[in-house]
Amino acid sequence: MDSAALRHASAPGLGSWPSRRARIAPQRPALVEGERTLTYAELAERTARLAAVLAERGVGPGDRVAYLGVNAISVFETYFATWLLGAIAAPLNYRLAAAEIRYMLGDSGAALLVHSADTAALVEAAGADVPVLRVGPEYEDAIAAAEPLADPPVVTLDDPAILLYTSGTTGRPKAAVLTHGNLTWNTVNQLAHVDVVSTDHALCISPLFHCVGLGQVTLPTLFKGGCVEPLASFDAGRVLARIGEAGITSFSAVPTMLQMMVEHPGWESAKLDTLHTVLYGGSPVQERVARAWLDRGVQVQQGYGMTEASPGVYMVPRGADADRPVSVGVPHLATEVAMLRDGERVPVGPEPAELLVRGPHVFIGYWNRPQETEAAFVDGEWFRTGDVVRVAPDGWADVVDRVKDVIISGGENIYPAEVEAVLVQLDPVADAAVVAVPDARWGEVGAAYIQLREGSEVSEDDLRAHLEAHLARYKIPKYLVRTDALPRNATGKVRRVELRHRAADLVPDAERSS
């Protein structure tokens, strides 16, 4: 690992990891997958055996172990075994194309790839020259035959734990390097914001190759000795049913998942009384969706963050004012925030500006990308989030938009998120996304892609009348385009780059700005 390429970051105050001999309720369930339950004692035993298997295959401190597959017990076992060796986990998105997987295996320099049986064809198509361990009989036989790792190396909070590839919505994906301290401090931040106890039974819905799936509910629940149930895929009806069947207490999700559950035929009859924590992030949930959950006795709490912050930065406190449904709340315990305005760092305030973040949960840099790492920080310590926010005097923040998504039309800033929020107020509109297109007169104008609810209709005149009633005229998109579905990545975020490419075809050659 090119340590010179990374910022040094420590996690003061936590000391060293607890003794590996420590046990908290070893016979309590740690992980559940279908009919299978693994206790904490069994998880520890299998992790130590798998670590020995990985070591026999040449994995040592600092090496990268890639994992490709859906959420499963084997994902946790691979992560924990990798970390026990002082190696670095490198989870991969199984929804990617073979060429993308090949790129990430090469970029990370993976020493070994562990993969699920259902990704075998993808692994073969990727054609990467990396030793593999396939989950199934081979994996189980290797664990059963191994002796538990006898003398694991010392692992500190400053050591890299995981490479998490960014979504790649702009160019080649890059891997954020999170340390054990980053993950630990994020867990502490989460526990300061939400109540987690050892009797909790959490669903792990979001993919474990992303920071939300790992950091928001999953690791805090395991930290407190609760039970985590990974789901291989999201199905709104199945999740609703499972909440009642298993007495699920918590999960994290993206807004589209929450909306799909509200709109599912099983919503009204679903038993939700055991739920006490539902966290979401990635984008604001529609107000009507948040209120639908609240009407069922569940306050959904919006969190704001990014992979580089492990991921938490802001979160809405439990029991907060329901009249602020789109706010991201207040900063986490160990999070400092500031703003970047005209190239200068300034305190947070009500005027929109780019958010800066620092704290022991902020990553140490991008894998083998020293220049991009340096460019990501102001004064060497404040991470540039790329998000425009405004912060009220009481510390509550609203995310206005991405810096790169702001449309500058005739010298005026247009924030697509503001326009989108107005569009989805119309009942026929299920979702909307606004992107910039070139314009000969104004430089840039907006193009809105609008997804209607199934069976609904709305005219362009009605859309424009609604927009004119709520927005200044310069903010109203020049182009309104119907679409069956908005393109999204694995975390549910709209792929705006793809929409920009589509929108380019809307502009007549004569109207393109020079």
Give structural notes.
The protein is α/β, with parallel strands linked by helices and 514 residues long. It contains 15 helices and 27 strands. The strands form seven sheets. The protein has a seven-stranded mixed beta sheet. Strand 1 (29-33) and strand 2 (36-39) form a beta hairpin. The longest helix is centred in the first third of the chain and has 17 residues, at 40-56. One of its GO terms (biological process) is fatty acid metabolic process.
Draw up the topology in text:
Layout: E1 29-33, E2 36-39, H1 40-56, E3 64-68, H2 73-84, E4 88-92, H3 98-108, E5 112-115, H4 120-126, E6 132-134, H5 137-145, E7 160-165, E8 175-179, H6 180-193, E9 201-204, H7 211-215, H8 218-223, E10 227-230, H9 236-246, E11 250-253, H10 255-262, E12 277-280, H11 287-295, E13 300-305, E14 312-315, E15 330-331, E16 336-341, E17 344-346, E18 353-358, E19 365-366, H12 370-375, E20 377-378, E21 382-391, E22 397-402, E23 407-409, E24 412-414, H13 416-423, E25 429-439, E26 443-452, H14 460-470, E27 479-482, H15 496-504
Parallel strand pairs: 3-4, 3-5, 5-6, 9-10, 9-11, 11-12, 12-13, 26-27
Antiparallel strand pairs: 1-2, 7-8, 8-19, 13-14, 14-15, 16-17, 16-18, 18-21, 20-21, 21-22, 23-24, 25-26
Helix pairs in contact: 1-2, 1-5, 3-4, 9-10
